[in-house]
Amino acid sequence: MKVNKIHKSNLHLCFMESGEINTLIEEISEHLEKPELYHALKVQSSIRSITSEFLKERGFIEVPPVIISVLTDPLNHPVFDPTIDYYGYKYSLTKSMIFHKHLLTKHFDRIFTFSPNIRLEEEDKVKTGRHLAEFTQLDLEMKGASRDEVMSLGEDMIIDLFKKIKRSNEEDLKFFGRDLRIPSKPFKRIAYLDAYKQYGEDFEHILSSEMKEPFWIIDIPLEKREFYDREDPSRPGILVDMDLIYPEGFGEALSGGEREYELSRIIDRIHRKGQTEEQFKWYIEFAKEGLMPSAGFGIGIERLTRFICGLERIEDAHPFPKIPGHLSL
């Protein structure tokens, strides 16, 4: 009898798994058949080619992405952190290539990559409509650059992209009923603490909903970011960094700024974040050999697609979206 009970229990489990599989297959099939996905992926393909060409024309070299590493972005918010034991070494899935691109600036002046990022967000992030557990980030870095220089580059890239998308993807924009507005340069800048004082904790969403063009949030407080963002020497507690925010309620577009490159400041910042030198020993060893001052940013390709197409949710910008808290293929 005991054997039969185990057999029935296993059979029931198999039926449950089969049901889940069938449901997932149906959902994926329906998703792949959507005309919205087809047009969104056409736009996304153009985004990749246009931005790549833009950067190469300005002296950037494309480098391959890093998928697993013993060193990855700690992030400043909680995510699940799966690791791989490979020949006795602990590898993490890449959350962003922030450290790798900074290391590259010792040998290359300007680099970019289309980096697959794995951030296993907590389930509540699904509410935003702009979070995926797996996404692609256009990550770039410039040796010796200031925040103002990378912000200017970002503005030029966005303007160039929007102009060319309006020509190359006219039919796709027409399908979405999207009249893509070309922003004017320079984009508006708003200091983080000023925005917080006026609108409270939800200032990003409020401002994003009110604005008609992309805008910058600058001078973010130290505790809101990771240790590698450079603290302004003349304003302790304030970072030389920025976020670009889409208008129309679409939220954050890109994040970046200047990097800490002096060993003593890096170690001090690690300690002030409550982290340990052991966590970042690889990076510290490179810092001992000398790092270069640099600045850069990362911009999410799926979020950019979502904004250009005016999509309600980011899932419609990916054929196999990894939705936080949901079973995905």
Q: What characteristics describe this protein?
A:
alpha+beta, BirA Bifunctional Protein, domain 2, 3-stranded antiparallel sheet, 13 strands, ATP binding
Word description of this protein:
The protein has 329 residues and is α+β, with helices and mostly antiparallel strands. The protein has a single domain (34-317), classed as Bira Bifunctional Protein, Domain 2 (BirA Bifunctional Protein, domain 2, 2-Layer Sandwich), CATH 3.30.930. It contains 10 helices and 13 strands. The strands form 3 sheets. The protein has an 8-stranded mixed beta sheet with strand order 1-6-8-13-12-11-10-9, with helices on both faces. A hairpin with a 2-residue loop joins β4 and β5 (89-93). It is globular, with a radius of gyration of 22 Å. The model is unreliable at 1-16 (pLDDT under 50). It holds the Pfam family tRNA-synt_2.
Task: Please give the domain count.
Answer: 1
Strand content: 15-25%
Gyration radius over CA: 22 Å
Q: Biggest sheet: strands, sense, closure?
A: 8 strands, mixed
What CATH architecture do you see? 2-Layer Sandwich
What count of helical segments does DSSP give? 10
* Assembly state (oligomeric): single chain
Strand order of the largest sheet: 1-6-8-13-12-11-10-9
CATH topology: BirA Bifunctional Protein, domain 2
N- and C-termini, Cα separation: 38 Å
Shape: globular
How helix-rich are the residues, as a percent range? 40-55%
- Overall number of strands: 13
Order of helices and strands: HHEEEEEHEEEHHEHHEEEHHEH
Query: Which class of secondary structure composition applies to the elements?
Result: alpha+beta
Q: Quick one: CATH class?
A: Alpha Beta
CATH superfamily: Bira Bifunctional Protein, Domain 2
Kindly state the mean pLDDT as a whole number? 93
Keywords: Aminoacyl-tRNA synthetase, ATP-binding, Ligase, Nucleotide-binding, Protein biosynthesis
Protein name: Asparagine--tRNA ligase related protein
Domain Aminoacyl-transfer RNA synthetases class-II family profile: 41-321
GO molecular function: asparagine-tRNA ligase activity; ATP binding
